Amino acid sequence: MGVWLRAKETAEQVRAEVAAEAERQRANGTIPKIAALVVGNDPASVYYAETKRKVAAKLGIEFELMMQPGDVTQEQLIRIVSKWSRDAAVHGIMLELPLPAHISTSAVAEAIDPLKDVDGVTPANRLAVMTGEPGLVPATPQSCIRLLKAYGYTLEGKNVTLVGRGQTVGLPLFHMLQREQATVTVCHSRTPDLTFHLKHADIVVAAVGKPGVITWEMIRPGTIVIDAGIHELPDGRITGDVDPRAIEVAEAMSPVPGGVGALTTALLFENAMRAIRLQQQAGREAAR
Question: Of 31, 16, 15, 108, which Cα lies nearest the Cα of 63?
Fold first, then answer.
């Protein structure tokens, strides 16, 4: 039986640091503010946005939540985020995904000021993930790595099998793992023998977006498993991409819920504090 890699303690530490910095910013005349946009009535998107608003209130961060109908036009969304990008009182912009099919996510993301892009979805920040240059990195990939380090696990020299290559988690995480000096194998829907790659991994990171796609039999004894998936089953239970019974063979595994997702929200607000610092630095440089 392995160890559950629970994120509660690490998330609390991050939130405490964010609250302290938000208080310092307020003392210096800057009132931290985040603006979030939810399109349509997807229950998960609304739930996550409301959760972030409650967390923001506890951290001393103002949070503007704007709801738009599912038939909103792309041009209307671009106008909204462009206005926030120009507004000096807004320091972070969150775009709840997915957007309706008739809207180009990349077109809306391009209208976000990269210095306010706390989700790391703009082209400039996607490039920063690849190159390691300063920028705002997506929170979920950060959470995967931060959770490992919180429990004393290192990535340098380790064989990591990353299952999933999506734009939100898998792809940025691939680049981040490489910068941690891990040897990374990326598996996806066209990988012919997923079990082979899982059995040769020191660390498995699942970011597929399909519940239980990795069974406990596919995990080699002694492997460390990070599950970045989260799904609600028809019976109301919450589960991840990995069968939770994998804890019986793994050395350690992150639970769902209580693992990656629990830390992700805290890291979003850490990104918001970094965004403020980047904006302040840009302002000083522009004043020279």
Answer: 31
